[in-house]
Amino acid sequence: MDASATVFDNIVQSRRSMRIYDAEAYFDSEAVARSIRRAMLAPNSSNMQMWEFYRVTDPQKIKDIAVFCMNQNAAKTARELLIIAVPKNKYRARAQANYAFHHARYCNKPIEELDKRSARKLKYFSRLMPMYYFQDWLGLWGAVRKLIVSIASIWRPVVWQVSKQDLRVVCHKSAALAAQTFMLSMLAEGYATCPMEGFDSKRLRKYLKLPRSTEFNMIISCGPGTTQGIYHERFRVPENEVVFMV
Ligand SMILES: Cc1cc2nc3c(=O)[nH]c(=O)nc-3n(C[C@H](O)[C@H](O)[C@H](O)COP(=O)(O)O)c2cc1C
Q1: How far is the CA of 89 from the centre of ligand 1 (A)?
Q2: Is the pLDDT of residue 49 over 90?
Q3: Number of domains forming the structure of the chain
Q4: Tens digit of pLDDT for each residue in 221-242?
Q5: For position 38, which CATH number holds?
Q6: Residue 177: inside a domain, yes or no?
Q7: Can you give the C-alpha Rg of the chain in angstroms?
Q8: Which residues line ligand 1 (CB under 6 A)?
Q9: Is 220 a member of any domain?
Q10: Cβ proximity of 174 and 44 under 8 Å
Q11: Can you give the residue range of the structural domain that contains 208?
Q12: Inside any domain, residue 223
């Protein structure tokens, strides 16, 4: 193993979910800012970056949100909380941002003057992505999209994940990759974290005054770790139960 693999291995091996943070030790909140910037570099579906990061640093607000987290120690004792949200209503803005980025790469030339590949890229963000992410309340558009891909699948391989619920999974997968990047980065900075999904998302949404379309991926508590904050030794099922050669 080379030196960087050893460093990375140490980070991964030492990450544990921390349930009790040290209230006294120094905590550099700039480490959180740096880790969020790294998390924003996580791979994500179509580069739509359907994520938002809400930092909670105020002790009273941490207390308030810990109540929504069922008063879990991991939240109550945290020095900072990071809430990773999926703003489902921002897909048009994100598609537009990607469009503008690529259009600038192509010197803002009209689409008719571009080669096939570049024109396809622009259409991907101006037409396909808005169509793919568009949702109605009942999920009828998702059902229509599913019907279209079912018909197309008779002739060729298709992406089946087009329904309203599928799109939620698409967004949350990417947000979770950002979450993991954040946690590993925090560890590299010398701090512990705990990912949490055990919280009242409706109360949290109201508290943060976010629209109903916003979902939460997870809340990550962070701070200086303690030995009593790791409740037991690590357990994983054996490799031969989860790793398969194809
Ligand atoms: C999506 C997700 C949600 C989780 N929710 C909670 C939670 O609400 N409270 C908690 O104490 N731990 C939570 N955990 C932490 C897991 O319990 C923990 O990762 C698992 O037991 C393995 O332990 P380790 O992280 O120390 O390796 C969550 C982890 C993930 C990935």
Answers
A1: 28
A2: yes
A3: 1
A4: 999 999 999 999 999 999 999 9
A5: 3.40.109.10
A6: yes
A7: 21
A8: 16-17, 19, 72, 74, 194-198, 218, 234
A9: yes
A10: yes
A11: 10-89+166-231
A12: yes
